[in-house]
Amino acid sequence: MKKRILAVLMALVMVLCVAGCGGGGAAKKGNGLIKVGIINNDPNESGYRTANDKDLKATFCEANGYEASFAYSLKNDEQITYAQKFIQDGVDYLLLSAADTAGWDSVLKDAKDAGIHVILFDRTIDADPSLYDASIVSDMAKEGDTAVNWLKGQGLSEYNVIHIQGVMGSAAQKGRTGALDAQVAADASWNLVTQQTAEWNAEKAQQIVQSVIDSGASFNVIYAENDDMAKGAVAALDKANISHGVGKDVIVMGFDCNKWALQELLSQNWNYDGQCNPFQSSYIDEVIKTIESGSSPAQKTIIMDEKGFDASTITAEDVENYGI
Amino acid sequence: MKTGNIFQKIFRRQIMIPLAAFLLLAIFNLVADPSFYKITLGYNSAGNPVLSGYLITILDYGSELAILAIGMTLVTAASGGQDISVGAAIAISGSMLLRCLCGADTRSENLNMPIICAFLISMVVASLFGAFNGVLVAYFKIQPMVATLILFTAGRSIAAWINNNELPIVNDQSFAIYGGFIPGIPIPMPFFIAVIVMIITWLILKFTNLGLYVQSVGINEKSSRLNGLNPELLKVLTFVLLGVCVSVAALIKTSRLMTINYSVIAKDIEMDAILAVALGGNALSGGKFNIPASILGAYVIQFLTTTLYKFNVSSDALSAYKAVVVILLVVFSSESVRGWIGGLFKKTVAVKAGKEAKS
């Protein structure tokens, strides 16, 4: 008897689930709204992604003339499935931040055949440019160059760098690593004390820096490819009583411009933070308006403005305006 | 002949497996670079004496894992399966802890409530999630790995929801103690916390019949029921105890960084915890268990991680190296190989004795 009740309950739950999904997916046409399907990475992935998702949700709302559906996944194959679903639903625009650069050709071709405009944001993919209308991205290599140039400008006699990398193979890691690697190869006074991936993870970064401290090797720069990892590194420094920040023993560099990280800059505990602009929605909005008016966007690839902040010049307004 | 028996006995002791692994790593480091064992006394930024060195790092960072290994051993023994949601549970428990400490304002300068209260609340939450897993396993008879898969998948989203997707940061330095040092004592606090948990566990096992009951449930559920035990309740209890361990580990982990990133905190720690149990020579199918062996197993894993970091093994290759070590350990700890090694010792001793007798 117990089992039967349980079975009935479970069946009910399943039916409700199916009904729920059906309700969400049912599309209404002809209400004058532009239908966009947005495929993004999981907003819980990082502060960057959370800000990115918030920004998109704020722009693509009914008040602005959009009917938006969101789908999140960190896995490419799931994202492709979502894309197929959006194509079947007949969206007008498909906005895509791809988890992986490969594997998108056939689904984007389907979209093109169905007359759907595809706009890539945040991340670019390996596909023929004719398959999408525009791509709004950060130039990660430029972010790396800006940071390394800033570091060069510090005029240290010797650069012994602990390089903490992001997840290997991601665009952010490649761009930010590339610039530093090139500089280290070109200049004999630049050395890498260690070069390790902490996979965007503060705990791993802390252990990596701890290991360097334990080994007794000397270093004067921490180049962490995001703020979380810089924080982990700083936690290890604090534990070992190694001073860091403006005018101190170790220069700390991070990326992404989280608000809390910029506050660390403001209080002179860190030295540099490179911006990675998550606010793409205004650019996307502009592109959509252009396409709706019948013309095509002037450039296919739009690279957003990105800054690097120096602890000695950062202001409280910068923290407010650029912190995510 | 007698010595042979002793060797065989030693090799059949469960604690020998992690101990052998430990010695192997220790000798490897001694040969490769003796400076591995250097410990220096310094002063931290607060001006308090602290010890530093690789060995201290191992004691420090291995402690969370040792605490988790205790709970995981009990769960394994009672249910014959493993909880793969401990990483996600740490994210939940840690988020709850910081939520209580920071209140609604994620940047508050002052603590919203005493740390002990926040910790107790997070412990209750973690225990409830443990009980949820336990009920699924014990009463609904779902395989532990499948049952805990639910929380494994959903846990980090729940953690995100607890803090409204925000990243709370604790500014009060008194919270840093749990992942750092107590002023004046140069040994890392996580190690002390781990020792306290070990002592409590030891007392529980010594003065209650929990250990015996858990073992009998793991060995034969039916016969233990016939003997008047309640296997379901005992299973739930082990999951709740694991929940308590999770909340302690979460306290240490959040205190280390004074913040929490729920999407990556304690990532893949469940695999290390299960590995610690396996390294301890415990049968993953349940039944008899040995908690000290699991604890030693946990520190061996950290020993291995620290060693790999020291030799600059790129950390994305770390898991591959770990896998190799695991294969070796599992093979060497298997009943047949251990018996064979024990037998080998016996033989050589016998041969020696024979030679001596001849001459």
Can you tell me about this structure?
The complex is a heterodimer of chains A (324) and B (359). Chain A has 324 residues and is of the alpha/beta class. Chain A has two domains: 123 residues, 3-Layer(aba) Sandwich (Rossmann fold), CATH 3.40.50; 151 residues, Rossmann fold (3-Layer(aba) Sandwich). In chain A, 44% of the residues lie in helices and 19% in strands. In chain A, helix 7 runs parallel beside helix 8. The longest helix of chain A is centred in the first third of the chain and has 24 residues. The N and C termini of chain A lie far apart (55 Å). By secondary structure, chain B is mainly alpha-helical. Chain B has one domain: ABC transporter involved in vitamin B12 uptake, BtuC (Orthogonal Bundle). Chain B contains 14 helices and two strands; from the N terminus they run ααββαααααααααααα. Chain B has a two-stranded antiparallel ribbon with strand order 1-2. In chain B, strand 1 and strand 2 form a beta hairpin. Chain B is globular. The interface between A and B is large, with 39 and 41 residues.
